[in-house]
Write a structure and sequence with these properties.
By secondary structure, the protein is of the alpha+beta class. It has helices spanning 3-70, 76-93, 137-149, 203-212, 221-225, 294-298; strands at 97-103, 107-112, 120-135, 154-164, 169-181, 227-233, 239-244, 252-255, 267-273, 276-281, 284-289, 328-331. It has three domains: 1-70; 76-216 and 315-331, Ribosomal protein S6/Translation elongation factor EF1B (Alpha-Beta Plaits, 2-Layer Sandwich); 221-298, SH3 type barrels (Roll). The radius of gyration is 36 Å and the shape is flat.
Length: 338
């Protein structure tokens, strides 16, 4: 064997040793290390998912504890009867007439079982009530307020209010959904839970809404009495608008950005153009010439009706009631009229 052959053989042996060494390194060191790292990453993900699941379960448990405290009794048949009786007494307390209340059969509420696959677990029942009756706006506001303050696990699914006659009476159709949970400890009584007073509707907004009674037919006398008398400029050159408000008092003088002191309505001066004032009335801007009233601009046909004189609901008994001048339909998917 010559020298050249020996070098070639040695090189081949070296390559074979390097190959075997690399293969061994990949098989016995790099491979297991990669697998171990992947296993660690997988375990970390599983631990994080488990921690998230525990946190979610804790939150759900806390929420379910609150829900079970507000739930109708666990017996769906008894719950259906008790809540229907409560709803009837509520309407009678607030002097609704022509009352009719229909209750649907309890509908099961099921969730997926955590222990048995492809099996659902019953957690309660959902019951729908349809209420119809006639009422006046102040009484309706009181009804809504008490419904809002009650602690039952319920919500208004839909609400329709239709004015009757001149709008002093309303025809109300309400769909209410209430829930009975198996987890509740009460078996034969409704919840006595009460709403936090700080979360109640704004007293001033509600009182103004009831006093204003936007269901009333015709146009507001208050707005019809507001008349632009003059436009002047003070020493600083600021425009001033002079308004008569029909209250037998002296004219009210306001500058740009100021509002008239009139009940129930917001009338703000936003600009002056020649012999006319640009006025924002309850969010809508109009151009009011000197000598003209707000009523003549907003209601050119002159169909003036009296401002609502119905009794104002006390601030602690008034809810925010959605409304429309002819018909109001409201759908709610939120939690419990609250």
């Amino acid at each position: 064997m010559n020298r050249r052959t020996m070098w070639l053989a040695g090189g081949a042996i070296l390559i074979a040793v390097l190959y075997v060494g690399d293969l061994s390194y990949r098989t016995f060191i790099e491979g297991p290390t990669t697998k171990a790292n992947n296993d660690l990453d997988r375990l970390d993900r599983q631990l994080q998912e488990a921690a998230d699941s525990q946190l979610l379960a804790k939150k759900v448990g806390q929420k379910m504890e609150t829900f079970s405290g507000r739930s109708l009794p666990s017996d769906p048949v008894l719950a259906r009867s008790l809540y229907q009786d409560w709803l009837l007494k509520l309407t009678e307390r607030h002097k609704m007439t022509g009352i009719s209340i229909d209750a649907s059969s309890p509908i099961p509420i099921e969730i997926k079982s955590r222990t048995v696959k492809r099996k659902n677990r019953l957690i309660g029942h959902r019951i729908t009530y349809t209420l119809h009756g006639k009422t006046a706006l102040p009484q309706w506001a009181q009804w809504m307020k008490e419904f809002e303050q009650s602690g039952h696990l319920h919500k208004i699914k839909s609400l329709t209010l239709v004015p009757l006659g001149n709008g002093t009476e309303l025809d109300a159709n309400v769909t209410v959904e209430a829930v009975s949970l198996m987890a509740t400890e009460r078996t034969d009584s409704l919840s006595d839970w009460a709403r936090d007073p700080q979360q109640e509707s704004s007293a001033s907004d509600v009182a103004a809404f009831v006093s204003r009674n936007i269901f009333a037919r015709g146009f507001s006398k208050t707005l019809s009495a507001i008349r632009l008398q003059a436009i002047t400029y003070n020493r600083r050159g600021d425009a001033e608008a002079w308004f008569a408000t029909g209250d037998n008092k002296s004219a009210q003088i306001i500058t740009l950005g100021e509002s008239l002191k009139v009940p129930l309505h917001e009338v703000t001066l936003v600009g002056v153009i020649d012999d006319a004032a640009k006025v924002r009335v309850n969010g809508m801007e109009i151009l009011l010439p000197i000598g003209k009233s707000v009523g003549q601009i907003l209601d050119p046909m002159g169909s003036v009706a009296s401002e609502a004189t119905t009794t104002t609901v006390p601030a602690t008994e008034s809810p925010k009631t959605p409304s429309d001048s002819t018909k109001t339909t409201v759908s709610s998917n939120g939690e419990s009229a609250t």
